From TrEMBL:
Catalysed reactions, semicolon-separated: N(6)-[(R)-dihydrolipoyl]-L-lysyl-[protein] + NAD(+) = N(6)-[(R)-lipoyl]-L-lysyl-[protein] + NADH + H(+)
SUPFAM superfamilies: FAD/NAD(P)-binding domain, FAD/NAD-linked reductases, dimerisation (C-terminal) domain
Additional detail: The active site is a redox-active disulfide bond.
Oligomeric and partner information: Homodimer.
Enzyme class: oxidoreductase
Entry protein name: Dihydrolipoyl dehydrogenase
Domain FAD/NAD(P)-binding: 5-334
Organism: Marinobacter iranensis
Keyword Cytoplasm: yes
Keywords: Cytoplasm, Disulfide bond, FAD, Flavoprotein, NAD, Oxidoreductase, Redox-active center
Domain (Pyridine nucleotide-disulphide oxidoreductase dimerisation) ranges: 353-462
Family: Belongs to the class-I pyridine nucleotide-disulfide oxidoreductase family.
Gene (name only): lpdA
Localization in the cell: Cytoplasm
Length: 479
């Protein structure tokens, strides 16, 4: 078989494998390079997301949530579940089973679509040549008309708390604990920190989260953030804001942490410490000096709006380029690039990419926050509706949170859609679809929603934008 391809994709995560499949479906001869191996040295497709990220973390979030419900919420609903316990080894086995199924499934999809998997570390050379070095150190060079870089990202390590793989771990290590830590420290109260902290808090850990910034979830709508913070604190997550970490030392199997907050120097002891302060692009030994691809000082690859790099025929997608580090954003970029290579001209609508925090309650949003709209000087209207007034949420014993819709005052066009509450990750899709089609709040208000459903809260929030909600008192309009 010739070593020349129409498309070579470097990386088989949610951006890379999707780009490879789409390119092959469009009739392009495609190969996908992946270096990931498991602990047994077996080649794995799927990247961070499927192996040690989105999927295994959601498996543990679901399992721990069910345990939490059975332990604390069933009784008030008339279900008596005595002495509920859990088997952590079985939990981890289930998590691994799901990962195996999905990563193996990508191999099947490659086969059915005619994508050639190539295992090893890919390095882009000049003129779209790609050198692949396998795990035995043997190298081979492949040629391509187009190369798509989709190498993803990895956790940032901070000098005060270097990973040791046992006591001080990253997000990957936090998914592999063999027992529940009595006292768990989490550095960073962002998306990943909140999700991992939630898993272990539900299973019995005393969780302390240290966040350097003074504002909780500063990137999201602050009305939603404040509501979420209240719920997380009620669940026992001890979240300390404005806490700048200065050191971590392991002594007698305990992690001694020092940090500074508004009260001065502080100390804390933990059985385990998870460091979740963000991720950085995985571009180590990826580009030769004459590859023609440019990076910034943080390791992000420069691309235009259509993910083209400065080197002809070379593209980059996902976590290695600008924009949110989200699996679904990477997948959309992968499809766009494959279609552009095939001669079509689609674009990704970056204004309509949803974000989700898979805690309980879930937090999800798309579009602008109220703070952003206000800062832009735009006139706007807001409609909110609490799940506490939703019959289906009451029936499900899950009434915390709200739906919030922000609309432009002149056009009524929806510019922001925010949810904190049950199934927010599913409900936000209604906002994404509405915004993708340029809907007004009135469009949603005139839409018939099934009763009783959680989605009726979307309907009511849309009605509320014009002060016409039915099932809560509307804010009086200023005269």
């Amino acid at each position: 078989m010739s070593d020349k391809y129409d498309v070579i994709v470097i990386g088989a995560g949610p951006g890379g494998y999707v780009a490879a499949i789409k390119a092959a479906q469009l009739g392009l001869k495609t190969a996908c390079i992946e270096s990931w191996t498991d602990k047994q040295g077996k080649n794995r497709l799927g990247g961070t997301c499927l192996n040690v990220g989105c999927i295994p973390s959601k498996a543990l979030l679901e399992i721990s949530h069910k345990y939490e419900e059975a332990s604390h919420d069933f009784a008030e609903q008339g279900i008596i579940a005595k002495e509920v316990s859990f088997d952590i080894a079985k939990m981890m086995k289930r998590k691994e089973g799901i990962v195996d199924q999905l990563t193996g499934g990508i191999g099947g999809l490659f086969k059915s679509n005619g994508v050639t998997p190539i295992y090893g570390h890919g390095k882009l050379l000049a003129n779209r040549n790609v050198e692949v070095t396998d795990k035995d150190g043997k190298s081979k060079i492949y040629e391509a008309d187009n190369v798509i870089i989709a190498t993803g990202s990895k956790p940032i390590q901070i000098p005060p708390a270097p990973f040791d793989g046992q006591h001080i771990v990253d997000s990957e290590g936090a998914l592999e604990f063999t027992e529940v830590p009595k006292r768990l420290g989490v550095i960073g109260a962002g998306v990943i920190g909140l999700e991992l902290g939630s898993v272990w808090a539900r299973l019995g850990s005393e969780v302390t989260m240290l966040e350097a910034v003074d504002t909780f979830l500063p990137a999201i709508d602050q009305q939603i953030a404040k509501d979420a913070l209240k719920q997380f604190q009620k669940q026992g997550l001890n979240i300390t804001l404005g806490a700048r970490m200065t050191g971590a030392e392991v002594k007698r199997k305990l992690v001694n942490v020092t940090y500074e907050d508004s009260k001065g120097k502080q100390e804390a002891k933990f059985d385990k410490l998870i460091v979740c302060v963000g991720r950085r692009p995985y571009t180590d030994n990826l580009l030769s000096e004459d590859s023609g691809v440019q990076m910034d000082e943080r390791g992000f690859i420069f691309v235009d709006d259509n993910c083209k790099t400065e080197a002809p025929g070379v593209w980059a997608i996902g976590d290695v380029v600008r924009g949110p580090m989200l699996a679904h954003k990477a997948s959309e970029e992968g499809v766009m690039v494959a279609e552009r290579i095939a001669g079509h001209k689609p674009q990704v609508n970056y204004d309509c990419i949803p974000n989700v925090i898979y805690t309980s309650p879930e937090v999800a949003w798309v579009g602008k926050t109220e703070e952003e709209v206000k800062a832009d000087g735009e006139e706007y209207n807001v409609g909110t509706f609490p799940f506490a007034a939703n019959g289906r949420a009451m029936a499900a014993n899950s009434t915390s949170g709200m739906v919030k819709i922000i609309a432009d005052a002149k056009t009524d066009r929806i510019v922001g859609f925010h949810v904190v509450g049950p199934q927010a990750s599913e409900i936000v899709a209604q906002g994404v679809i509405a915004m993708e089609f340029g809907s007004s709040a009135e469009d949603l208000a005139l839409t018939c929603f099934a009763h009783p459903t959680l989605s009726e809260s979307v309907h009511e929030a849309a009605l509320g934008v014009a002060g016409g909600a039915i099932h809560i008192a509307n804010r009086r309009k200023k005269k």
